Amino acid sequence: MKSGRTSVNRLRGTDPASASRRAFLKGLAAGALGSVALPAWARAAVSGPGAPPDLIERNDWPEHWETSLEALGRSWITPNHLFFVRSHFGVPDIDPATYRLEITGLVERPLSISLADLRAHLLRYELPYVLECAGNGRGLYRLPNTSGTQWERGAVGNAWWGGVGLNALFGWARLKPGATHVWFEAADHSTLPGVPRYVRSLPIGIAANAMIADTMNGEPLPRLHGAPVRAIVPGWYGMASTKWLTRIRVEATPSDNHFMTRGYRYVYPGEDPAQAPPVQDIQVKSMITRPLAGSRVARGAVRVQGLAWFGKLFGVGRVEVSGDGGRTWQDARLHEDKRFNRYVWQGTWRPWSAEVRLGPGEAVLMARAWGDMMSYKTTQPLEARPNAAGYANNSIHRVVVRVGA
Questions:
Q1: What is the SS3 assignment for 369?
Q2: Cα–Cα dist 132/279, whole Å
Q3: 201 is in which domain, residue-wise?
Q4: What are the DSSP calls for 77-123, one per residue?
Q5: Are 100 and 240 in the same domain?
């Protein structure tokens, strides 16, 4: 590890006059904050082989891939190859051998840390955390249109993340008085001028709980998920868990980057966008993973199961299930794991199940989660309040099935 600021591996800029056709098209796509602005032939020229099985391709480049409900329901932990993918720009090329993580700003000792130092000289830990894209459910809002990728329910996943605590790095760097915000700077960016880089900032009290992660489910972090190093911010929507992390700045003010001042805001119809509150912690939510919509089930006792999560302290306290479209509700059983205490459960999701008696005909299954402890009165709305960008849709999940005679 070196003290002082040194260069961090970054993407090289692309000069359209001399770049290859493929690189130039990537620049155009990134300059539009996504490839949706390009015609289909141009997107095909820059995109990869496409989403693997069990992932739904919502955008080809940058990759926006959604996990199917059927795949999410197979396991409490989402395997790396099934984890949803969401990026603002193309995946950067970073050489782990030369990678450095800078810590700068209001610190007594600016740092430039290699991947080897990060792995060898700090106390490491591994915990399961759920990550959810803030736009998960955007495509299900009842609005004429919403900006952004039209996710349904699968832009979420739960993995074992391994790394070091940001607080440990701050112990090395020694914060100065006035340090109140932490800026995460990423390596992914547009190759065209004038397009802002991706930067997120957090209050230092939230950032203190962040992990600087380099493994996912016991394996080195995959490129699509931020390799070699990313931030994991428990309880906040995924935009805070910056991928391809290159610099951590400690400052006295929040970042004024586009993605902070204009992006990720709850802009409600009829309200002033300049006063829109920021998107932050994950709202209480549940989903049904069995049976799937349109399934045929036998009459009588039907096993209904799913997953529930909440970004607030202590997470989910209970889940209720209805088999008659919400007229009556019964408690589901939250599955326990003796390895975990209450603190661990607050960062991950809770598997649940219930036996629901169904008569012949069409049945509408519903599930709603409730918070725990201090948030025990917090539950899901029947319909979440729509906002212009389609964020934080935690509407109650409804699944229609056919019940045999």
A1: strand
A2: 12
A3: 2-6+34-43+50-264
A4: SPPGGGS-B--SSPPP---TTT-EEEEEESBSS-EEEEHHHHHHSS-
A5: yes
- Name the pTM for this structure: 0.87
Could you tell me the CA-to-CA distances from 323 to 34, 213, 288, 309, 403 in Å, in that order?
Answer: 41, 41, 12, 21, 11
pLDDT digits (tens, 9 = 90+) for 115-165: 999 998 788 999 999 999 999 999 999 887 777 899 999 999 999 999 999
In angstroms, rounded to a whole number, what is the distance separating the alpha carbons of residues 197 and 141? 29
Residues of the chain with pLDDT under 70: 1-49, 338-345
What CA–CA distance (Å, rounded) separates 243 from 228? 9
Are 306 and 258 members of one domain? Answer: no
The SS3 assignment for 138 reads helix
**Cα–Cα distance for residue pair 138/146, rounded to 1 Å:** 7
Q: Which residues contact 230 (CB under 8 A, 6 or more apart)?
A: 212, 213, 221, 241, 242, 243, 244, 245
d(CA 58, CA 151): 7
Residues 334 and 230 in one domain: no
Residues 254 and 292 in one domain: no
Neighbour tally for 272: CB within 10 Å:
8
pLDDT attached to residue 349: 95
Residue 154: name the closest of 264, 87, 78 by CA.
78
Domain match, 97 and 238 both: yes
What are 209-234's pLDDT values in tens digits?
999 999 999 999 999 999 999 999 99
Residue 350 and residue 293 share a domain? yes
Measured torsion, CA atoms of residues 262, 267, 273, 274, in degrees rounded to the nearest 10: -60
**Claim to verify: residue 254 and residue 314 sit in the same structural domain:** no
Domain membership flag for residue 172:
yes
CATH code, domain carrying 355: 2.60.40.650
Q: Indicate if 232 and 362 belong to the same structural domain.
A: no
Contact 183, 245 (CB under 8 A): no
